[in-house]
């Protein structure tokens, strides 16, 4: 590679890099589009709805799933893309709006259909939402250890230790 | 590479003990471990990534990348599975093996557990058999294991136990709330409850402090190093002799045999992926039942074309573990007090002597359940999601107790480890292929244990109980055993009563693989005990020069 081609290649790479970082900085998520994120948040809130305590979405369920789709759950990416699209299609077909725009009761109806007809996808979201809400805050869900406080599980989880127990404050 | 007396493959419950016994006996030892030396700071008390819950991966090895196995399901379909997936049947890959992150129940088997066929007769379709050695052969080594590894507890209240000469070295931990509720209930039923023997310091022992009673116990490395495994007992002792070298990150490829059919050492991939040869006078295989069988089957040579010790097609057969069964009980008061490790009280009333049944299980209260575990343990009929599920979590989390136990399994020749003809791991070594099922009688015994557990919970005040029923498919997992059966007859077993491969006298197997049957108890103390027992035999042979080449 001569010097000129080297510089050209470098410029192209820099352009590609800045394009990527631009796109990243616009969206909130690593994997999901904003629209997918909204659909998933509503779906997670159906699974663990808000009451006196936050629901799954407020506790960070989408953050948890989004993060893991870049890591351990890479293999589930296609299932999420397709499943979320189908959720919105089903909502539009039934109620004329995408899933996130429906009332809570309408969403519940859609989820019942999903549970029956798209069982594999629904079970995936169900287990991941449970993991996010009841699992360790360090993965982005269970924000401020909300589920542990709800259940009355004392904090800090390990007595005499603060190194890693910041309820998600320590970025991973 | 310099020749040593012994190369020991696997630094877990069996291999750690053997490395210590041989090196303190003056032999030079290389201990190969494919995993790393980990501690509590590495696993970070992650309830989604630990030895029990692996949804985000394995905390104690092996990694999901490059370590597949092939699993054949009951319908005959093949699946390539990763270590964090359930059917992989993983134990662990790190220094200490399973004993770094275990619950640390340290049980002796009972007399009958070594004589299952004589006691009950084998059910049709089962290879149920007696061990060639008895409880009395192992008793002194059980004692040695209890005192060197460090076990707390008190089994004075257990009239069913086999006799012991010495008590346990440490008293039991003080009871938690579940214990206080379950103890009088068991007595009212005429049962015989007692303190579980645990490889956990209740008082300072071996230079380390006692348990601090946290909830992050089973499935995690101990924060204060109060839980005892080979990684903080016998392996440091072995290294301190100066006779033992521990090599981590080393994956053994095969045992090398010469033209006369004797082992000359092993070849392994070191931590940088370079293939190395370690010559040795003899080889000890302690990789746990599945990987030990895989290594023997992968060690092919002119005189052992079907794998080392596999002349009669016995290597890998009789794969077993434990069929965990029991019951969950819901109470109208809080039984949860956040005092770990949680498990503390057991009964041995139903290990044997159940009318019409062969064997049984020790039943104990379960370790502390983390919230994520309870999401799937709510009463049958609870909605799986929505407000009702969240309400149920709030209601039941502190108001349930679990009684369960490891039902002794009826071994089957068809439940087995083979090596897969196609799939290879990251080093290019053919991987384990697992197939088989559980014997119907195992399921019958398991269901009976569910009823016993429910009875105890109801007597303790449970307003409702629901069973944890036995599952189908081959068994294995952390309690994996049976694949390198010990026996006097070379045609129906893999190793002799000295854990020595029948037709290769300088290769030994020392792990759960040699268990003929696996008892109705957690097997790790028995594996350690066999480590001491086999080492004594190896040292005797060594002094008689039978092993020098």
| Termini gap of chain A | 39 Å
Radius of gyration of chain A: 20 Å
The CATH architecture term of the domain at 167-227 and 323-407 and 439-472 in chain B is 2-Layer Sandwich
How many independent structural domains of chain A?
2
- Structural class of the helices, strands and pairings of chain A? mainly alpha
Please work out how many helical segments of chain A DSSP would assign. 7
How are the SSEs ordered, and which strands pair?
The complex is a heterodimer of chains A (172) and B (549).
Chain A: H1 3-26, H2 34-47, H3 61-69, H4 77-95, H5 104-117, H6 119-134, H7 146-151
Helix pairs in contact in A: 3-6, 4-5, 5-6
Chain B: E1 4-9, H1 13-24, E2 29-32, H2 40-43, E3 69-72, E4 78-81, H3 116-120, H4 135-150, E5 152-154, H5 177-188, E6 194-198, H6 234-240, E7 244-247, E8 251-257, E9 263-269, E10 275-285, H7 289-298, E11 323-330, E12 345-347, E13 363-365, H8 371-374, H9 387-396, E14 400-407, E15 416-424, E16 430-435, H10 440-459, E17 464-468, E18 507-509, H11 524-543
Parallel strand pairs in B: 1-2, 1-10, 2-7, 3-16, 10-18
Antiparallel strand pairs in B: 3-4, 5-6, 6-12, 8-9, 9-10, 11-14, 11-17, 12-13, 13-14, 15-16
Report on the architecture of this protein.
The complex is a heterodimer of chains A (about 170) and B (about 550). Chain A is mainly α and about 170 residues long. Chain A folds into two domains: about 1-30; about 30-150, no CATH class. In chain A, about 60% of the residues lie in helices and about 0% in strands. Chain A is built from seven helices and no strands. In chain A, helix 3 crosses helix 6 (about 120-135), helix 4 packs across helix 5 (about 105-115) and helix 5 (about 105-115) crosses helix 6 (about 120-135). The two termini of chain A are about 40 Å apart. Residues about 15-25 and about 160-170 of chain A have low confidence and may be disordered. Chain B is an alpha/beta fold. Chain B has a domain at about 165-225 and about 325-405 and about 440-470: Cholesterol Oxidase, domain 2 (2-Layer Sandwich), CATH 3.30.410. Chain B has eleven helices and 18 strands. In chain B, strands 1, 2, 7, 8, 9, 10 and 18 form a seven-stranded mixed β-sheet that branches. Chain B has a seven-stranded antiparallel β-sheet with strand order 5-6-12-13-14-11-17. In chain B, strands 4-3-16-15 form a four-stranded mixed β-sheet. In chain B, helix 4 (about 135-150) packs across helix 11. Chain B is globular, with a radius of gyration of 22 Å. The two termini of chain B are about 15 Å apart. The model of chain B has no long low-confidence stretch (mean pLDDT about 95). Classes of the chains: A mainly alpha (about 170), B alpha/beta (about 550). The interface of A and B includes residues 68, 111, 135 and 161 of A.
């Amino acid at each position: 590679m001569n010097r000129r081609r080297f510089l050209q290649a470098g410029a192209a790479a820099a352009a590609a890099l800045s394009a990527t970082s631009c796109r990243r900085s616009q969206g909130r998520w690593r994997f999901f589009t904003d629209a997918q994120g909204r659909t998933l948040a509503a779906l997670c809130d159906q699974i663990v709805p808000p009451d006196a305590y936050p629901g799954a979405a407020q506790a960070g369920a989408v953050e948890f799933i989004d993060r893991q789709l870049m890591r351990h759950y890479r293999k589930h990416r296609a299932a999420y893309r397709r499943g979320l699209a189908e959720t919105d299609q089903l909502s539009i077909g039934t109620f004329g709006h995408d899933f996130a725009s429906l009332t809570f009761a309408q969403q519940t109806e859609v989820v019942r259909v999903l549970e029956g007809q798209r069982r594999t996808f629904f079970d995936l979201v169900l287990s991941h939402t449970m993991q996010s809400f009841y699992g360790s805050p360090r993965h982005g869900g269970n924000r401020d250890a909300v589920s542990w406080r709800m259940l009355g599980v004392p904090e800090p989880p390990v007595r005499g230790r603060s190194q890693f127990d910041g309820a998600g404050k320590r970025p991973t | 590479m310099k020749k040593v007396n012994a190369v020991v493959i696997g630094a877990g419950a069996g291999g750690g003990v053997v490395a210590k016994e041989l090196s303190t006996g003056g032999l030079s030892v290389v201990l190969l471990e494919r995993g790393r030396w980990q501690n509590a700071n590495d696993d970070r008390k992650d309830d989604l990534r630990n030895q029990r819950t692996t949804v985000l991966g394995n905390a104690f090895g092996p990694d999901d990348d490059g370590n597949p196995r092939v699993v054949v399901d009951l319908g005959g379909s093949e699946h390539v599975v990763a270590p964090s997936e359930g059917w992989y049947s993983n134990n662990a890959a790190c220094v200490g093996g399973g004993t770094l992150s275990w619950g640390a129940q340290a049980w002796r088997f009972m007399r009958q557990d070594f004589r299952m066929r004589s006691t009950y007769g084998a059910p049709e379709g089962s290879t149920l058999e007696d061990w060639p050695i008895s409880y009395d052969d192992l008793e002194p080594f059980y004692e040695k294991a209890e005192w060197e590894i460090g076990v707390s507890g008190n089994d004075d209240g257990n009239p069913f136990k086999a006799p012991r000469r010495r008590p346990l070295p440490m008293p039991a931990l003080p009871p938690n709330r579940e214990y206080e509720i379950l103890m009088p209930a068991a007595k009212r039923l005429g049962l015989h409850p007692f303190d579980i023997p645990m490889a956990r310091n209740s008082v300072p022992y071996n230079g380390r402090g006692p348990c601090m009673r946290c909830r992050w116990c089973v499935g995690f490395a101990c924060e204060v190093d109060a839980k005892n495994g080979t990684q903080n007992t016998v392996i440091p002792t072995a290294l301190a002799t100066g006779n033992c070298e521990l090599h981590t990150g080393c994956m053994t490829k095969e045992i090398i045999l010469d033209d006369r059919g004797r082992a000359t050492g092993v070849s392994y991939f070191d931590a940088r992926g370079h293939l190395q040869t370690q010559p040795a006078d003899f080889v000890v295989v302690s990789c746990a039942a599945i990987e030990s069988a895989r290594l023997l089957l992968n060690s092919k040579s002119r005189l052992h074309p079907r794998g080392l010790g596999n002349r009669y097609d016995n290597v890998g057969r009789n794969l077993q573990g434990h069929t965990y069964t029991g019951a969950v009980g819901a109470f109208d008061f809080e039984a949860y007090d956040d005092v770990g490790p949680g498990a503390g009280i057991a009964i041995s009333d139903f290990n044997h002597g159940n009318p019409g049944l062969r064997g049984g299980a020790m039943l104990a209260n379960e370790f502390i359940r983390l919230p994520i575990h309870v999401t799937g343990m709510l009463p049958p009929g609870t909605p799986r999601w929505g407000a009702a599920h969240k309400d149920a979590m709030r209601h039941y989390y502190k108001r349930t107790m679990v009684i369960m136990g490891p039902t002794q399994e009826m071994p089957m020749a068809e439940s087995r480890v083979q090596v897969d003809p196609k799939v290879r791991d990251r080093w290019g070594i053919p991987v384990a292929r697992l197939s088989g099922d559980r014997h119907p009688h195992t399921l019958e015994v398991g269901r009976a244990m569910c009823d016993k557990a429910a009875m105890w919970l109801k007597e303790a005040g449970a307003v409702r109980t629901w069973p944890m029923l036995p599952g189908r498919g081959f068994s294995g997992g952390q309690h994996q055993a049976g694949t390198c059966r010990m026996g006097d007859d070379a045609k129906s077993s893999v190793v002799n009563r000295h854990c020595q491969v029948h037709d290769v006298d300088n290769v030994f197997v020392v792990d759960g693989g040699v268990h003929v049957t696996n008892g109705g108890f957690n097997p790790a103390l028995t594996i350690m005990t066999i480590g001491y027992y086999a080492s004594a035999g190896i040292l005797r042979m060594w002094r008689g020069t039978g092993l020098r080449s």
